[in-house]
Amino acid sequence: MSAESVPAEPRSAAPAARPSLTERRKAATQLEIARCAAALFAERGAAVTAEEIARTSGVALRTFYRYFRTKEDAVAPLLSVGVRQWIDDLAAPPAGPAAPTVREALELAARRALTPADEPAAEALRRTRGLLRAMPGDPALRAVWHRVHHDAEEALRPVLARMTGADALQVRLAAAAANTAMRVAVEEWAAQDGPVDGARGPAALVTRGMRALTSGLPELDGPPNGRPAPGN
């Protein structure tokens, strides 16, 4: 099955409580600090200091430490935002009378997450590439990357449990496979200099990885619970 053959059903997000103004401002400040931190780490590696990150992002050092325990923790909001988006996309009920299979829904959500819709999204991926290239010289930075993906795997489990109705082991295996496919796709793309689209772009790589890692999980071949199969 080619990527193009997966039915691109539109998805509608489930209603959610809107964060307060204070929470939105805090999240915006954290993300801006994360962007500055990512740019500095990509440029200078482990030599970057918390003072530099605070100064570049326009906040006091005391404010920086109110949000983050370490300089490496500062990049977590940038890495986490894409994770939250693709899991929310997967969890949203598809519009229309029929749903893709769970396997197809996983692939669609992964491809959407790694296909930039605009220049800011493309820039976020490029920042992630810079961070990944800085990680070999900074184990603490790599630990943040793995922590973000551990949290993503944990967040995927209840979503896949609702979609499949499978037992806990199968759900855990599916979450681990999907999360690993996402992580490896971005790491492989970041290790070379190609564009974000094309045969070696992260969306193409995650398609290959997702299919390889989930091929032994028949629980993903049905439609999400409570939805008719495509064509029915």
From TrEMBL:
Domain HTH tetR-type: 27-86
Gene3D superfamilies: Tetracycline Repressor, domain 2
Keyword Ribonucleoprotein belongs to the record: no
Highest taxon listed in the record's lineage: Bacteria
Keyword set, alphabetical order: DNA-binding, Transcription, Transcription regulation
Start-end of Low complexity biased regions: 1-20
Annotated DNA-binding residue span(s): 49-68
InterPro entries xref list: Homeodomain-like_sf, HTH-type_TetR-like_transc_reg, HTH_TetR
Region (Disordered): 1-23
Protein name as annotated: TetR/AcrR family transcriptional regulator
